[in-house]
Amino acid sequence: MTTWNLTGVKHHILICNGGSCMRKGGEEVTIAIRDEIARLELDSTVHTTRTRCNGRCNDACVVIVYPQGVWYKGVTPDKGRELVQTHLKDGDPLKDIVTYQYGEDGLSMCHPTAAVGITKKASIKEERV
């Protein structure tokens, strides 16, 4: 296993490699994003992590960019390369595929065609009372 020194990292990219995302090209998206990061020499400022399911299977393939808290839907290898160039290098999120954006009030939905999904309950503890 590798232990990376993450000092100086400005972006952490979480690339879904769960079942639905893998069926929608998750492996190819992962490779495209990592190759573009290397091509643009952003390795020292961008760290990538393959994740399991992020709970947005209808939005596959899902890619999340932190610390900005931007969730992307329907990412293809081409969109993955564009995400690296436009969002990570130039600072402009790809608005056409952003599903959620983190702000003062937490995550808010940004894409009109994104699946709304099941609302999380306030607290399991409250349910038991």
Description:
29% of the residues lie in helices and 22% in strands. By secondary structure, it is an alpha+beta fold. Strands 2-1-3-4-5-6 form a 6-stranded mixed beta sheet, covered by helices on one side. The longest helix is centred in the N-terminal third of the chain and has 14 residues, at 26-39. The radius of gyration is 15 Å and the shape is globular.
The portion of residues assigned to helices is: 25-40%
Strand order of the largest sheet: 2-1-3-4-5-6
Could you give the distance between the termini? 44 Å
Low-confidence stretches are none
Shape descriptor: globular
Number of strands: 6
The secondary-structure class comes to alpha+beta
Mean pLDDT: 90
The Rg value, from CA coordinates, equals 15 Å
Instruction: List the helices and strands in order.
Output: EHHEEEHEEH
**Main β sheet profile:** 6 strands, mixed
Number of helices: 4
Strand content is 15-25%
Layout of helices and strands, plus pairs?
Layout: E1 11-16, H1 19-23, H2 26-39, E2 46-51, E3 63-66, E4 70-72, H3 77-89, E5 98-103, E6 106-109, H4 124-128
Parallel strand pairs: 1-2
Antiparallel strand pairs: 1-3, 3-4, 4-5, 5-6
Short key terms for the protein model shown above:
129 residues; alpha+beta; six-stranded mixed β-sheet; 22% strand
How would you briefly describe this protein structure?
With 129 residues, the chain is α+β, with helices and mostly antiparallel strands.
